Amino acid sequence: MTSREPSSSKLWSYDVFLSFRGEDTRHGFTSHLHAALQNRGFAAFIDEDNLKRGGEIKPELLRAIEESRISVIVFSKSYAESSWCLDELVKIMECRERLGQQVLPIFYHVDPSHVRKQEGCLAGAFQEHEDGILKEKDEKEREPKKKRVKQWREALTQAANLSGHHLNNGPEAKDIKTIVGNIRELLRGTDEFQVAKYPVGIDSRVQPIISVLREWYLITVEWGELKMHDLIQEMGKTIISEKSPTQPGRWSRPWNLEAITDVLTNKSGTEEIEVLSLHLPSPEKKASFRTKAFVNMKKLRLLRLSYVELAGSFKHFPKELRWLCWHGFPFEYMPEHLLNQPKLVALDLRFSNLRKGWKNSKPLENLKILDFSHSKKLKKSPDFSRLPNLGELDFSSCRSLSKIHPSIGQLKKLSWVNFNFCNKLRYLPAEFCKLKSVETLDVFYCEALRELPEGLGKMVSLRKLGTYGTAIKQFPNDFGRLISLQVLSVGGASYRNLPSLSGLSNLVELLVLNCKNLRAIPDLPTNLEILYVRRCIALETMPDFSQMSNMIVLSLNGLPKVTEVPGLGLGKSLNSMVHIEMRGCTNLTAEFRNNILQGWTYCGAGGILLDAIYGIPEWFEFVADGNKVSFDVPQCDGRNFKGLTLCWVPRQFKTENLAFTVVNCTKHTTSRVFRRFWEHNEGKFHQVQLSNDQLKLNLQGGDKIVILIEAFEVERTGVNLVWDKPLKEQRFPGSYDYYFEYESEAVPDWLYDSHPTNQMTAATDEPKRKRQKV
């Protein structure tokens, strides 16, 4: 079952970060996986490609982890011998917790249970780590080392509990293809086209062009990934270069590193050049050119530089730029004339060395996007008074930023603001609350931020507010006037009380995280759909749910003092629920548990997850050890069969895909149910329901049934037949749906070896299978 933490709105530098033990897999599996990812167009970070050996590698690796959308961990036999690898792993799991990043473990010739419990090939490595601690004579040095080893163990357990891939003597090429497909699906939520993000004058014509190309199968879009036919690629390059095959300075879009370097080194650029992109992946591979190389590029509209240095005056720099993207901007102060760009729409200076913004710049009246994120030396924001059309502002991870210019209150079109991880930002100017157009404000992990300005309630367009990880103790008095607020995340040790939320009529998602001193959650608006509460160890009182008729997801984790959720299971709320998760809620009453388990009407890819200490309830009809249950259907006695309730307690993870097989040995039919990427929760109680309409079982009294649960080694499995009670189908938000297959006149081969022959009525010649996908 999936669990979600808030993630900051950000632009990633990499799609995939690969964590691996070089001695085991660098020149084999990992290099092949890296090549496959690159061939599929993914930006994959791997240390041997992106960092010089012998350099100060660790800070760059940690930064790359933070800036990657997915971390892929290749657990191999000697992975745990490397403290470097284990520190990487701790950082990866921290980013999963803080930023909601995806993590995909790969168990390369190692048993997942050995990784989870640090046994087998990992036991010796940890013995050596702990022996080293015992040899340490200095008590002050010994304690941090003990803490470090404890963090390693926790990170290994957490990672091994995630859905992943166990590779053991199978065809490596096939395994890599499957893994790349998995990564593609995890990334499929990204936008297909970002033209509107950085408009360059062709917005209105993009979709008609795409439609024509799709019609002729010259481009395809799969899982958010644009694929272009080789002929189109070559045709584009031919068209660009055919006028001057040997003179890339006359091409409108020089496309390879060699051609671009030649143009800039020899200053051979002409007014034909409209787009120039020189991307170097890290600060270790800088390039330096003169600004004179750009003087003749009069029509340059899009310039993308990455860790490139330019020396000289910017007085005659091209003035037609719409998009200026310069990652690793080398200057501490904005060079004169650089921003004399009246048509500039987007300015992206991520990872810059700037200490402060510009002074007395000319108006940038068309600028809509300003990105200074990860500029770790930046202490003050620039003056915004000459940016009348600015819509998006990103200062995330500007760790020295302490002051925002009050002119921010003049940005009447600003809609999206990101101050995440601005560690030294103590306050927002009062003028900020004048902005009636802002829809998103994120201040995650602004550790010095103690309050939000009074007047916040005037921000009538604010829809999303993220304050997790701040030092805020209470909200402004007019907080309840944020009538447009839809998503709110709060959290941190400083919270003792939450503001009144019941008046926020449009609030649909609330996240309460790590409030260690919070004892009660106040009444919630009845329109709320999603509630996440995490690690609030003092929390005792939950709000009344009896009128929460729109609730879809309730996810509670680490609330040892909570005994019940009042009204859940008795009122309207349970009828709308798709997913209930209560992990680390070890004090729930038996009456409350039975109310939600027996009152559950949802069928589909959600479910209920509880701690396994409660066991399988006594009222389940058919219970067996292991992952298989066999039973005879009782007589219907006029009742209508509606579906199945299944529960199980998994012991060990085997595959990332969950599957149920329901075999009617009497009628020779098999129904299979699949769900991709089921998150493994070892030792937790799971309950799901499947309807007869989905399974097409049509059971009758006396039918002999076998049910098998795949994906886990299971301690116990329970089955209930649902009679007469109506079951509701609804999509679980953010999850993978179930897929159903139905086979008539077919019984799987494994059944013959495990089911008594006197219960089988199969003919000697196996009938032809008829499969129907539902």
Automatic annotation (TrEMBL):
This is TIR-NBS-LRR-type disease resistance-like protein. One of its GO terms (biological process) is signal transduction. Keywords: NAD. InterPro entries: Disease_R_plants, LRR_dom_sf, TIR_dom, Toll_tir_struct_dom_sf. Signal peptide: none annotated. Gene3D superfamilies: Ribonuclease Inhibitor, Toll/interleukin-1 receptor homology (TIR) domain. It comes from the Eukaryota. Pfam families: TIR (PF01582). Residues 12-187 form the TIR domain.
